[in-house]
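tmp note - Gypsy retrotransposon integrase-like protein 1
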Amino acid sequence: MGAPPNKPPDMLFVPEKERQELLLMFQDSKPAGHPGITKTLTSISRLFWWPTIQQDVRLFVLACQVCARRKTSKTLPIGLLQSLPTPKRPWSHLSMDFIVDLPKSKGHTVVLTVVDRFSKMAHFVPLPKLPTAKELAVVFAREIVRIHGVPSEIVSDRGAPFFSRFWRDFCAEMGVRLAFSSAYHPQTNWAAERENQGLEQYIRCFTTQQQDNWSELLPWAEYARNNAINETTGHSPFSAIYGFFPPALPLQFAEQAIPALDEHLTQLQEIWRQIRENMERDVAVQKRKADRHRLQAPSYNVGDRVWLSTRNVKLRVPSMKMAPRFIGPYKIIRRVIPVAYALALPKHLRLHNVFHTSLLKPLLCNRYTQVVPPHPPVQVDGETEYEVRKVLDSRLFRGALQYLVDRVGYGPEDRSWIPASNMSASRLVRAFHASHPDRPGGRPATHPGGRPATRPGGRPATCPVGRPVASRGEGGTVTLGASSLSSVLEGSMSDAAR
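out:
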């Protein structure tokens, strides 16, 4: 095929069958370094030309999975603000959270924060430790239900006490609806998060040098907080609940006129009406201001595949600075709300699978998309085994030697600890211990008393010598017993190949 007549002078025309190879050279090579759409187009346009060069460069870069995984997103936060509904009365809709890992004060190390989303009244309950679900139910009945009655809804994160079966059944029996925030999106429970910040600020102002008196400050912090005017409601929590202002100082003992009952109720209803109007107006203002700095979230359908941000995912890599910025792609299995989706995640990630759309990025598909499927398992002597690229670390777990392995065709999110008895990668194991002789398995491990550590069965916990397997490539890949990997691989990236 000859060059079109409109070809610019001093430019080389690229036939269609050669274009993808040229794009790979200028985008996906070490001298190029994945520079992006504009720089790739500029570099190619210095010497080469074809009629659809701009469109092809754009589609090729957008379909580049290395860029999708490794580059940080530079767009505004995705997803417009979704405000919680405005309550109609005090203590019907609550927010709850914990402040943990505090220095011990009178035997307490944890604070339970409970906030009424209508009046903004807060209670701070000191606890000796993070409670179990049963202990939380007792505290909640004693400190909240006893005083304010049973609420209609509780917003919280997905911490162990709140997400446990006991707590969910306990609230269901009382008719309380539980609303959980999505993974790594604390803005959903912002009322309690904001109260935690205010409480921590109060304690910093008055605590001792040893920081051991904070539990004694909680009643005063609660009093000061509930007696202050709230910017959203325009009233203090005390006036919103009781209809009057308590004295701010202990010396103010002037008697206050107490209105008649009907007048008092009328006054409270007027205060609540003003609070609802102020809250609705404030919510509208907050949404308008927040949406100026956000982008409309894309609408995903069940079955679509998306990349998941690693901002809050702990990968087994030496440094997160060089780790992929996104992992996946993973299939969407459910739309929870317009800005939250449930993903089909591998079980070994141990993450709650509902994520805000700001942590997701669509898998862009066009004619240049090349999804590389994971290497399938191989059959060795009737056993299904997976290929190992490298042994990364070793440890003794409950007396048994394990290796952290990187498998061929899988990302760092799929690295896992494998029992040494399942390994048949003797050459890679020896190479690892040659570089890390002090890691477990490099030399016979001993107990403090000098007795060699053994696995069940009495065999010393040293690296087993497996049968050699033919190497492939300079990495010298070998195989790994897959009997313990069936659950690990379930729902993995292999789904992205379909």
